[in-house]
Amino acid sequence: MLTHGHLDHAAGAAKLARELGVPIEGPHTDDTFLLEALGENALRPGFADVVVARVLKAERHPNADRLSLCEVDAGPVGRFSVVCGAPNVRAGMTAAYARVGARLPAGGAGAAAPRDLSLDLIRLRVQKSVSTPRFAERSLQGSDPAAALISTRPLTWINGSGDTPVYRWESLQPGNRVEGPAVLEGVNSTYFLPEGWGMLMDGWGNGSVRRRA
Questions:
Q1: φ, ψ for residue 87 (rounded to 5)?
Q2: Residues with Cβ < 8 Å from 165, sequence gap 6 or more?
Q3: Residue 168 in contact with residue 201, Cβ under 8 Å?
Q4: Would the N or C end of the chain have less CB density within 10 A of its end CB?
Q5: pLDDT along the chain (213 residues), means of 10
Q6: How many C-beta atoms surround the C-beta of residue 170 within 10 A?
Q7: Which domains does the chain show, CATH number per domain?
Q8: Contact yes or no for 70/82 (Cβ under 8 A)
């Protein structure tokens, strides 16, 4: 079965099918243009300065979560430090190593085919100044949360049921105290304050929930 029509997957399919006496399944018809270009691409592999190397050491990059810092041995070519983005890189494996200046074939055929790629070494440093947010504690506005009251809503909870006040979270002011049962409705979430519990808003916009004595 051929999953797609790339050179490394499909080039030897006919020979294997003849030798093993099995039919060829796939690839999808959308890959027809790749199959039609197999002959041309097979005649022009075009790799330069690409060698087989063994990974001697692979460690997490100190400044990036998804990169590894590797030491590779390319035999007579030498040893190199390489930044690798492959998640499965590990010490002891062998892989293709493209040196600086290597040329890689882009594939495709015809006038619209992309040009071959060459690897260059660049040094890039990005700096961006980010302002540090400053949070100011607001003064207490009193315990009455009536200004944040939206409506009442019939609810049923474990210990009872009844019309329950609904408050807009963003409208609660520092010092406001909400007694449960109550619904606290915000832009990103909705909370239920159980019966027997109370919530006090502090000057930073945080709600502290405690059971009433």
A1: -70, -20
A2: 149, 151, 152, 182, 183
A3: no
A4: C
A5: 55 71 70 63 64 91 88 90 90 86 66 66 70 80 94 88 93 95 91 92 91 84
A6: 11
A7: 48-118 (2.40.50.140), 146-211 (no CATH)
A8: yes
Q: Which residues pair with 199 in a beta bridge?
A: 178, 209
Q: What is the pLDDT of residue 192?
A: 92
User: What is the bridge-based pairing of β-strands 182-185 and 160-168?
Assistant: parallel
> Which residue in this structure is represented by tokens 């050179």?
7
Nearby residues of 155 by Cβ (< 8 Å), 6 or more positions away: 161, 162, 163, 164, 181, 183, 192
**What's CA 67's distance to the chain center, in Å?**
13
pTM above 0.85, yes or no: no
Residues β-bridged to residue 198: 179, 210
- pLDDT at position 152: 93
Side chain identity at 165, as an amino acid letter?
Answer: P
Rg (CA), the chain: 33
